[in-house]
Amino acid sequence: MSNLERLQKVIAQSGYTSRRKAEKLIAEGNVKVNGKTVTELGTKVSTDDKIEVNGIPLEKEEHVYFMLYKPTGVISSVKDEKGRKVVTDLLPEVEKRIFPVGRLDYNTSGILLLTNDGEFAQMLMHPKHEIDKVYIAKIKGIPAREELKKLEAGLKDKGEWLKVKKQRVRSIDKRKKKTILEITLNEGKNRQIRRMLDAIGHPVEKLKREKYGFLTLGNLQPGQYRELKPHEIKKLKVLAQKNVK
Fold it and tell me: Hey, what domains does the chain have and what are their CATH numbers?
């Protein structure tokens, strides 16, 4: 007998969307199993069942996982209404429908993961999993120790509480009045680092994500990518589960 899985999990694993969005699609009556509309979230299906989402048969696609060195000037999306370059344009050889795990701002470079595994993406993006991400920021001015402490203590910006896990000064250029900071985040609010450094009066000039968990850019150059190795994928899943509180 085939193993049964929850319907929303099967939809997410196909790469169609995240589990949360799959649950919404089911609840709204947009999913059919063997020709019948299913709205109950606890429904379990087997590999033999025929699933349709929005009238389109769900294809069971082999999962793929990539690490991209995202350059600046590229959108962390699969399409852009303004016709700007998106991250999937940098992986033209990949035929499967992949999407970025989270995002990096247009003017931020560094590690970005892409996959067609919705379950994996959801696991890594969920705030409760607290995966450390290390950024290198080149900022204007030379901040005082008290200013930098505010980043770890937390500050409010536009009604939102922002906080970094760790920060340290990598180097200071007194002549040019520039500072290089290393910042560790385990959350990822919109433009978080830029907003926080603006708030203490030291705007970001350049920002790069150097580490994602245990992953580093290695020999990759901006715009280059590589497939994640099976042990790296497994380690990321273990890391995400380990950090759940």
Answer: 5-57 (3.10.290.10), 65-128+214-242 (3.30.70.580), 132-212 (3.30.70.1560)
